[in-house]
Amino acid sequence: MPAAIEHLLPERLSRIVSRLDRSALDLLEELRIRESRPLEVVYGGQYAFVTAAGGLTLSADEAYRPDRDDCLKLLDILTNHSLYSFEEELRRGYITVRGGHRVGIAGRAVLDRGQVRLLRDISGFNIRLAREVRGAAERIIRSLIDPAQGLIHHTLVVSPPLCGKTTLIRDIARILSEGAWSGSRRPGRGVKVGIVDERSEIAASVEGVPTFDVGPRTDVLDACPKAEGMMMMIRSLSPQVIIVDEIGRKQDAEAIQEAMHAGIRVVATAHGKDIEDVRRRPDLAPLLAASAFSRYVVLTGTGSSRQQHVYDGQLRPINPMADKAALVR
Amino acid sequence: MIKLIGALMIIGASTMIGLYRAKAYAERPRQIRQLIHAVNRLATEIGYGSTPLPDALGKLAQQMQRPLDRMFQEAAERLGRERNATVRQVWQETVDRYWGLTAMKAPEKEAFIELGSTLGVSDRDNQLKFLELAKSQLQHEEAAAREEQVRFEKLSRTLGVLGGALIVILIY
Predict the structure, then answer these.
(1) Are A289 and A299 in contact (CB under 8 A)?
(2) In the 8-state DSSP scheme, what is residue A120?
(3) For chain A, how many structural domains are there in total?
(4) Which end of chain A is more exposed for a tag (fewer CB within 10 A), N or C?
């Protein structure tokens, strides 16, 4: 199994998961643990339940059902026996653990003046495995570079969950920071990259130090709210490119425009099936209406059927291969 | 002559027993005081620092005196190391193991174990309430222990000597 998640699970669950079929383990995307409901895995774009012996089945009746004890122990491990130091995470509904994996949690919300204060009676966990795929962005990176300035275009990456958004921008950060966008690394061409990593997913920082390779000239603001983080970056870290994940709120859109007007290139991601979807989101619509982005990358398909499509600012498709040919010439 | 040596040995032994018991009466409130200190520190670590429990216990261990330091140290290490352990269980086991080495008795042990079953499993406000509760219970026990100390510390010492003397008189 990805050794990374073994140390996250209490013994019983860890034993069951380690007996899973190799083919499923290698493609494992999500592990879903719900109290007294079947244990589920999502791998290679499909799902299955897991029996007590570690077999895969589609029948919910044969599946192993984690009990209260399993869930309590899992929560204990995830929070390092200290639920109280995870209040912010419990309010947002997920915990990022060592290795960049994100654990989504479901439970009962406790409200404070109409706002979610935290979750209690936590009974559902979704462990999403983070994978570092070096080279995930190599195929499309040339279509994103603005040859006139030798910098990346303002780029928005759009896709539904699990299509590899975060993996893609992590690799973009690495390539830009190394200056390796025309195939080979050329010394002296790397740019200063700033990552605002609100959910600690891009760089998977542990105690402030990235555990994924995000390049030699990259600064990471870990666990920092995006809008605020972008402003901090602009003021003090002088990045040439800012990379943020999952923009969606009004402040994010404003901060992005602020950064663009400060002469900084922005690479951002947003949830959505396609660009139209993003255009319909009230807080993001102004960004698109202002033609803020000059490149869009749409990701489709999960598992082995992943595809990357690149569009320019007028939504005309760019064929990465044709573009490459043009550049080489 | 031998009789005299024997008598002295009996008196010596019973005096020692008396002193030992007196020391236990004196130690108990002191150790409960230390526990209260520990609870206070823990409240600070949790309330202001949001320090994870294993780290907080490790820090506590460095400020405690023997044998309490080892109790906290072991709890901290086990929480950091064991994947299957819950705070409640580790707490109970370490307290059970080290309590015999202290001069403390059952009531404060109960209060302290009770605290262990609430640590780390709720939000900050809640934790502080539980810590406050444990503190007031411990303070209550401390007062009781002090009272006992006043009443029995001297008494045990004198009883030790006098008891030895009594045995000697009876068998002489």
Answers:
(1) no
(2) E
(3) 2
(4) C
| pLDDT tens track for B3-45 | 889 889 998 999 999 998 888 888 888 889 988 998 999 899 8
Asked if the Cβ–Cβ distance from B50 to A73 is below 8 Å, we say: no
Closest-CA residue of chain A to B56: A82
Based on the domain organization, do A111 and A155 belong to the same domain?
Answer: no
pLDDT, residue A183, reads: 58
pLDDT tens digit sequence for A226-266: 999 999 999 999 999 999 998 888 889 999 998 999 889 99
Domain that holds residue A10: 3-128
Instruction: Indicate whether A318 and A283 sit together in one domain.
Output: yes
**ipTM exceeding the 0.90 mark:** no
CATH value at residue A233: 3.40.50.300
Domain boundary among A98, A128, A158: A128
Per the model's pLDDT, the better-predicted residue between A240 and A211 turns out to be: A240
Gap between the Cα atoms of A37 and A60, Å rounded: 8
What is the rounded distance in angstroms from the CA atom of residue B57 to the CA atom of residue A275?
A: 51
Q: For Cα atoms A79, A108, A46, give the angle at the middle one, nearest 5 degrees.
A: 75
Are A80 and B123 inside 8 Å of each other by CB? no
User: Does the beta-carbon distance from B120 to A11 stay under 8 Å?
Assistant: no
